[in-house]
Fold this sequence. Notes:
Layout: H1 2-55, H2 62-96, H3 102-133, H4 136-146, H5 150-161, H6 167-184, H7 190-210, H8 215-225
Amino acid sequence: MNHEINTNRMTRTILLTSLFSLFFLTHIFSAEDIQVENKQEKENHHHQLATKIIGGMRLSDTDKSARLIVATVNYLDTLEKILKVRATKLQHLDRAYTAESAEKTALIVDAYEVARDAFLPLKKKYVSQLADGLVPYQVDRVKDGLTRDAFPNFEAMYFEMVPTLKPAERAHILCLLVEGRENAMTATDDEGQKQWWDKYRGIINNFIASQGYDFGKLSKAWDQANPDKEWAH
């Protein structure tokens, strides 16, 4: 009797252990499969974006076009890795520190500085590669493509919104848009780029208001006249 009970217990234990092991291994492999799929999707997306931007320029030199596509994909892939490392560090800090502290703030700043020190030289090298094969206007168009054409869209928006801007005021807004585009190039996703553009739009909005224009009234009128331009809202 006792022997049968012990045997049944052992059988149940072995069965549960096997089921747990099977679940654990399946979970691990599924997570790894998802990571591989996500990586492949991002790499494919980067190649599609690079081909769309460079290919759309219809360069006569096909070898040059191919080199620039490769350079663009390499830039985006490497930038993605740098930003992912930063995001992982920030997640670890959130878990390690349940409350805000000077130490946590310092570590967050350090994570951003390490990432910046990695992607700024990367961006400089990439822009240099573009400049070796393209004229300045073409380089700008590649930058626009990488930043969802926000620069030309916002340029048109502000100059339509405030048509009486003086030449110096227009020049200042263009400088801010150029700076915004340079920073937006260091983000690979829509949310990251939006954060940069929201920052520079705020600066530009305040600048226009400081020059004596009723920016609230002008922006409201423009929004009402352009309800279909979702990127502006």
